[in-house]
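I have a small job for you when you get a moment. Would you make up a two-line entry for one protein for me to read? No commentary is needed, just the two lines. Write everything out right here, beneath this request.
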Amino acid sequence: MINGRFKIFLDFDGTITQSDVGEEIFRKFLDKEVVNKIVENLLSDKISSRECWEKLCKAAPAIEKDELDNFILSQKVEPTLHHFIEFCEEHNLELFVLSDGFDYYINKILTREDLNHLKVYSNKLILDSKGKLLPYFPYYNSDCKSTANCKRNHIIDNSGEEDYTVFIGDGNSDKDPIQYVDFIFAKKDLLKYCEVNRITYFPFKNFDDVIVRLNELGSKKRLKKRHQAELKRREVFLIE
């Protein structure tokens, strides 16, 4: 029986939404070559995620609030998202949104979708009176290079030994947190990362694929936790 057996940790950009909203904002308001160079430096591990965001925000010109908000609200969510949220609520599966993006656009999109009740951990962004973007990183941890919002810590803080942890994601900021969960659902760049590094994962195209697999896992009388994830979690506890 699936009820309550899993803790779900869900990426936002490119997973909940169809596009990487954070990156698309900068591609709209900045010179695309500038954005490409900064993002390439992140993907090649020349800079951390926090440095990437700080450089992008610093390079951004003054932005009109209405123009920014309208652009954010033009971004679409994955069509099967609501079905998945309903599935989780029906089966008492606790769900957390872990994003390396910013609350400024996440909150607007979730409110539009009547999903602002979801628990979200993200970076913070302020648009000041002069139209400048000011980023803040309340969950920053220097150990987590691929994400300025240390997703690993949220997974560990919000799950226990009795829980089966599930991560659903697609990109660079998910490379670190997947090391600490029992079941990984991956697509796009995260799928390639799992392939190259021989990390066990389930491929998915949309949330209906995730539902099918979770039902299969939930029907098993005995589930094994991923041994490497257990070892990684223990390492963190020993450090703390």
Summary: The chain has ten helices and seven strands. The longest strand covers residues 94-102. The mean pLDDT is 95. The first helix runs from residue 21 to 29.
